Every structure is written in structure tokens, then in C-alpha cells.
Amino acid sequence: MQVAIVILNWNGADMMKRYLPIVLKYSQGEGEVWVADNASTDNSMQMLREQFPQVRTIQLDRNYGFAEGYNRALAQIESDYYILLNSDVEVTKGWLTDLLSYMDGHPDVAACQPKLLSVSDRHKFEYAGASGGMIDQYGYPFCRGRIFDTIETDEGQYNDVAEIHWATGACLMVRSADYWRVKGLDGRFFAHNEEIDFCWRLRLLGRGIVCIPSSVVYHVGGGTLPKSNPMKTYLNFRNNLTMLYKNLADGELHRVMRIRYFLDYLAAFQTLIINRNVGDFKAIFKARKAFKRWRHEFADDRATIQRSRVKTRINELAPFSILWQYYAKGKRDFRALPGIFLKRK
């Protein structure tokens, strides 16, 4: 089986200098390493030519963002499997072996992720994906090992291979056939929530998404935007609403959107009054207006997704509000949440 490990880079020369040697060391003989460059303005491409000539490169003509950047890069790569890997991920010995072995033995699974731990605190899960992603009935994401800003210590509590709703884009392995079956990531998202939307579309087709915790990687995290950056807030809210519009069943859509209208404006005023963050306050309003303005562009996508869906219920889409569980009931640990999440054999 051919495996293409593809790092989408934008001005990440320093991160690649630090982590690319480890990727090459622990992927030798199992995967071919590529770097797709989103029109970086640093010395990324020159550095790769001089220090890592064995790495194959694709140079894009402008910054297409995470989603469309990967679509354009992967369209140029022939492989049985793609691994979407952030430049700030430190892989470990055997990381690829376990992912590939599981995928080869489970043809019903479209995509998977390893366990993500933090580079800065190697005993704790990492925010971006921890040990597998879920969402609640209103579209709020959380993970095995991370709910909002509460991050658990890894004590082996999520070392089982488990069905998840979404695999993190920081390190996501996917069959190329499945990637193109759903036409890849939605490039209109640019960044944020694109991997959740992507995995949701695969789940609706009956394809599995799993976390394989025997494969371990460490992630710096944080991305290219600071956590409190208004642009990040804007993209998260706009894209999350769009994801719900595309993927929710007809019987759920209107109810969920009515509740989200209330929750989003509540979040905006909480941000302003409690956190005194005017930038994020404005970003939430801007995001809702942007969603309303471009929603019609996704009508055909929604129709196609709903017409082709083979699953009416996804177990990993939690039947509760994570906001209520976390803030009202004080449940900060994934294991304390209600509901049954399936384990895989």
C-alpha cells in the first residue's frame, strides 16, 4: 500500500527544521513525505531544497488555506492513503505502522487519527484532537480527553480503539478513494471546522472514523492564528453553522438552528461583558451575517448529502448539549458525560 505523508506549509520553515527530520526518521520505508507550500513568504522552499532534498514538494501559487490547499496538493499525488500532517507535529517510533496496519485490516474505516499529546506538557492531551473528536447536537466539538479548555492528563483512559465523529486535521490518515468520494475538504471554509465537516460527510455514507491510540504523536498546536484572534472566532462560527446546514437531517435542522441563534448571541454578549473582548464580539455577529449571506451557495451540497446519506443516526453525535453538561452540571471529564460511545475491535 502506498502512503503519502503530506505537510501543508505556510511560512513554517522553523517548525519543519525541528520536526521534519523526525517524520523522515520514523516514516522511512512506509511513507513518502511531501510538503505542499501555500505560497510562503519565508525561506521554506529554499530550506527544503538545501536541507531535505529527499522530500517531494508542491508549490501552490497562492495561500489557499488549509482546506483548498490540501485539495489542490492531494490532486497531484497518487497514493492509496493520504496522511494530512501539520508541520508542528512530532511523530514517534511506530506511529505509521499502527495506523496503516489498522486501516489495512478494516476496509469499512475511511479515516483515522493517532492519540495527540502536547509537546509542552507531554503527559497531557493536546487540544486539537486529543484521543478523538466528537460533537454535540448543536455542533459544539469536544474530544476524548478535552472539553472546551479543560484538558485531561493521559493516564491510559482512552487507549481503546474507538469510533469517533471526527479525526483531527493535525494528523489525519484517510483512504484516497474516500477523500475524493466526498470531493475532499470544503475549500470554501478556508480553515477551521473543515475536518469535522469532512468526517461528518463520510460518516453519513456509513464509513468509519476511528482513533488508534497505540499510535502517538505530539503536537505544538495553536496554528497560525492566536487563540483569541477575531478572524479565528469568525471562521469557527461561520464554518460551524455552515457545517450544520450541510449535514443535519431535515427533521433536526430548523430546531438546531433556532437554538444556535440564541446560543451564538449569548456567546457574543458573554464575550463582550465578561471577557471585555470587543474583537470576538464583533466577529460572532460578522460570522452569523456571513453565514446568512452565503448559505444559498451550499443548497446543492446539502441536497446531495441528504439524498445520498445511508445513516440516519450517528452514535458519536452526542444527544446532549455539551454546554449544559460542562457549565451547568460541571462535567469536565469526557468519561463523566452521558451517552454510549462505541468501541471498536
List the helices and strands and how they pair.
Blueprint: E1 3-9, H1 13-27, E2 32-37, H2 44-51, E3 56-59, H3 65-74, E4 81-85, E5 89-91, H4 95-105, E6 109-118, E7 133-136, E8 141-143, E9 146-147, E10 150-151, E11 162-163, E12 171-175, H5 176-181, H6 194-204, E13 208-219, H7 230-247, H8 250-273, H9 278-294, H10 299-308, E14 317-318, H11 322-328
Keywords:
single chain, 345 residues, alpha/beta, 9-stranded mixed sheet, 11 helices, 40% helix
Question: Describe it for me?
Answer:
By secondary structure, the protein is an alpha/beta fold. It is 40% helix and 19% strand. The protein has helices at residues 13-27, 44-51, 65-74, 95-105, 176-181, 194-204, 230-247, 250-273, 278-294, 299-308, 322-328; strands at 3-9, 32-37, 56-59, 81-85, 89-91, 109-118, 133-136, 141-143, 146-147, 150-151, 162-163, 171-175, 208-219, 317-318. Strands 1, 2, 3, 4, 5, 6, 11, 12 and 13 form a 9-stranded mixed beta sheet that branches. A 3-stranded mixed beta sheet has the order 8-7-14, with no helix packed on it. Helix 2 links the parallel strand 2 (32-37) and strand 3 (56-59). The protein is globular. The protein starts with a strand and ends in a 17-residue tail after the last helix. The mean pLDDT is 93.
